[in-house]
Amino acid sequence: MDKILIFAGTSDGRKLAGLLHSHQIPVHICVATEYGEKVMQSELKDCVTVGRLDAAQMVDLMKREWATKVVDATHPYAVAVSANIRSACREAGLPYLRLLRDEDEELAEEEDAVIVGSVEEAAEYLKGVPGRALIATGSKELAKFTVVPDYAERFTARVLSTPEVLEACRRIGFEGKNLIAMQGPFTEELNTAMLKQTHSEWLVTKDSGKEGGFPEKVRAAKNAGARLLLIQRPRETEGYTFRELVQELFPELVAESKNIDLIPVEPRKFTLLGIGMGAEEQLTLGGDRACREADVIIGARRMLQSLRRYEKPVHEEYRSAEIIHYIHRHPEYHNVVIALSGDVGFYSGARKLLDELPPDETELICGISSVVYFCSRLQMPWEDVKLVSVHGRYANLVGALQEHKKVFSLVGGAGAMNEVLKQLCLYGFGSIPVHTGENLSYPDERILEGTPETLKEETFGGLTVLIAENPDADTHVITPGIPDEQFLRDKVPMTKEEVRSLSISKLQLTKDAVVWDIGAGTGSVSVECARLATKGHVYAVEQKEVAAELIEKNARKFGTPNLEVIRGLAPQALEDLPTPTHAFIGGSSGNLGEILDLLRSRNPEVRIVINCIAMETISAMTEYIGKKPFRESDIVQIAAAKSRTLGRYHMMTGMNPIIIASFRGEESRSEEESGSNPET
């Protein structure tokens, strides 16, 4: 069997080595630096030679390893190294196989890049133009830019973060704010941020191909208003694409798959790791083991800072889609750890990642969640705490507080805690006990106790949580039927308590319902629906301004932040609203047919309740439902009477009779009724 010697200076070289090794093809890999060894797959560590070799040393390596074929997967710009490998292959009598990388110079030309032939030419060009530059060509040829007289003031270099590289940069005058030490490739967003942070008008780079993140550099330069100064790669006319090379080395493997990415390889391992609040001592023993065995650790900057002691290759990214994209682009990393804040089961990015990662290759390691940590600091049990999050998402914190004695919430970014506390004040919870936590587990951790009213003007940082207590939660009424006199009404029409209770019962609301209340009046139905659908949202549609203002006041009075007033006439005012699951029509202004058509078109399964007082509305409704079949239809007439006191007597006063119609969507017809039965 062949034994393949791979000079691996690129991610493609590492990918090729891993693929061949996973199919039991003997390989030996030669890398120039210790960093190259560090990013190699863990199962290949025993078959790696580290060091820069001349042609004679390469011949010795080929003989010592009994190689039968040699692959040159070094960087396209490593011209001298490739020449030595060719010479060594001729001397040893072995076939020389060059792995080619995709070229993207056309992409650069489209973005009006300046293209030069060498690093020396790039330095000469920068002598004659003004502006700061981010040098992203690596450390090996960085000294050539020192010929520019004011290089120390104008240039920022981006290099690998190894001690040897950093020392070499320091010796030639690149250090402090003029040096960025990180492992690439980098995302478009990170490239853009670096260009803006360094105020660079030029991005000096080589064409590193798609695997090296070149398209991201091109887009970042455009985003930041910088120009590319591209060092043209040496033209290579002979060699193999990745697929062609695999076919040359292992033809039967490619024959089984038309897509090289579908060729089976040794299973990878993905670990979704909850690292706790961030302090080093919070990492579990399982998490410590995962990090020690990792080939790469991926996570947001804060996560990576707490794991830097492991000295592993890292990739800064928190967005799930970008993490998956990076994993696919770097198959050389077999053991991938994705660091996540807190616990993987508590409002964690793990949920989206689990949808994309293979279940049989994925492990979850739980961490200490913020609620567990915070309650321990407060010496408070948490088995009866309601858990919500308003960090980057909507949650009805007020609604949760009405129903639960203790509510914990992730709050998030700077200023967010102040907004939450002000909302609690606005909706009647300004005097309840609250506890705020900031930068939990870090040296600058801060825990405050007070009320929303006393803390709402406090200055908070970016990592905050909250526990709010409502001692009166047990007295919260969960049935509809708020007494009429409790609503602010003025002279605006209102659906009365008894009719309102039955109408809402007919709506059959769910906790996450999206309700349209059309012709909302004082908002009595809207308020009751919002108190029941605490995880949903209610849109109160009202054309009269005095009524719309009353609805907003009633929403604040009864603690319903999930109620939004929509000013306008239906159906026009409904066009841009989210799709409803339920609709209540208390007034239609003569547009009942058009409103029902819109509801049915937006959601054929929508649950609808209509209150009819006027004979014209009753006529329009019965005519409509007679032409358009519905299911679960029901029509009830209610004529209630309510007592009033006259002296020492209680007299019953009749209210206007109301017809309440309820139905759901369009009734499905059988094949025979629709004329689609092939036997008819």
Summarize this, please?
The protein is built from 26 helices and 30 strands. Helix 9 crosses helix 10 (214-224).
Structural overview:
- The protein has 680 residues and is an alpha/beta fold.
- Helices cover 33% and strands 22% of the residues.
- The protein has five domains: 4-100 and 239-261, NAD(P)-binding Rossmann-like Domain (Rossmann fold, 3-Layer(aba) Sandwich); 105-231, Rossmann fold, CATH 3.40.50; 267-368, Cobalt-precorrin-4 Transmethylase, domain 1, CATH 3.40.1010.10; 371-475, Methyltransferase, Cobalt-precorrin-4 Transmethylase, Domain 2, CATH 3.30.950.10; 484-666, Rossmann fold (3-Layer(aba) Sandwich).
- It contains 26 helices and 30 strands.
- The strands form six sheets. It has a seven-stranded mixed beta sheet with strand order 24-23-22-25-26-30-27, sandwiched between helices. It has a six-stranded parallel beta sheet with strand order 6-11-10-7-8-9, sandwiched between helices. Strands 3-2-1-4-5 form a five-stranded parallel beta sheet, with helices on both faces.
- α3 (55-64) packs across α4, α9 crosses α10 (214-224) and α15 (320-329) packs across α16 (350-356).
- The longest helix has 14 residues, at 79-92.
Proportion of residues in β-strands: 15-25%
Stretches where pLDDT is under 50 for at least 5 consecutive residues are 104-110, 668-680
CATH H-level superfamily title of the largest domain:
Vaccinia Virus protein VP39
CATH class identity of the largest domain: Alpha Beta
Helices, by number, come to: 26
Molecular shape: elongated
The structural domain count equals: 5
Look at the helices and sheets and give the structural class.
alpha/beta
The helix fraction, in percent, is 25-40%
> What gyration radius follows from the Cα positions, in whole Å?
34 Å
CATH architecture of the largest domain: 3-Layer(aba) Sandwich
Q: Terminal Cα separation, in Å?
A: 70 Å
Strand order of the largest sheet: 24-23-22-25-26-30-27
Fill in the CATH topology of the largest domain.
Answer: Rossmann fold
Number of strands: 30
Largest sheet: 7 strands, mixed
Averaging pLDDT over every residue, what do you get? Answer: 87
